[in-house]
Amino acid sequence: MSFSVNTNTSAAIALQYLTATQGQLAQTQSHINSGLKVANARDDGAVYAIAQNQRGQVAGYTAVINSINNATSSVDVALSAGQSISDLLIQLKTKALAAADSSLDTASRQALNANFTALRDQITTIVSNAVFNGFNLVNGSTNQITALASADGTRRITTAAQNLKLSGAIVTVKSTATISTQAKASTLVATIQTSLTNVNSALAKLSSGAAKFSIQATFAQKLSDTLTAGIGNLVDANLAQESATLQALQVKQQLGVQALSIANQGPQTILSLFR
Predict the structure, then answer these.
(1) Which residues are CB-contacts of 115 (< 8 A; sequence separation ≥ 6)?
(2) Overall fold of domain 70-210
(3) Which pLDDT tens digit goes with each residue over 144-197?
(4) What is the model's pTM?
(5) Structure-derived torsion over alpha carbons of residues 15, 20, 21, 24, reported in degrees to the nearest 10
């Protein structure tokens, strides 16, 4: 081995190892700080690309779940309106049956009719107010409500609207119906019963639509959770392992510094040759 003040091979080698250790230490610290072993494309381009694609899928399913939740809320509002209308129809039937009694005096019939018309008009109020996010599924303004069913937006699920307005195909009671006479009241009993049957059938259809949305939302959430777990498997750092690696690298760093210090002392021995 030659002695030279111009070339210190030992110091160069020690510096190379120390630099490598410093790089590994910085990488490990980055893993610990971010919790990710692949935080960007520079860490592992292929894994990062896969993870980003999966993150896009998760974002898509987030939009799907939001869309389904909005549609579900609209259906829930329609169901609440339908249930209230069903209750009102039962009350209307009771009033009509009472007014069909030919023995009623004029004052009693007028009182029943006033109560009947108030309940009848309440149906119109309920139908008008059954709105969520701009959608009203019971006033005939729309035929159906649609929600996203896939992360790419190509598939959708729908639920049909139910028109519960007075004088309609479901609620056949006219908006001008009264029980001011015994004959009118007798005729309305059957009409109200038909409307009640129709409304309950419409409620069953709306309920089926709500169940369909709920099932799809649950499925979309499970897919999102599975994808998120998969992304974690790809990019998440094992912090227990990283902790052990950090301690090992810190020891290597200290040893590297000592080795470089020893190597740098080499040229000092040359001075002893010239004493």
Answers:
(1) 95
(2) f41 fragment of flagellin, N-terminal domain (1.20.1330)
(3) 999 999 988 899 999 999 999 999 999 999 999 999 999 999 999 999 999 999
(4) 0.78
(5) 160
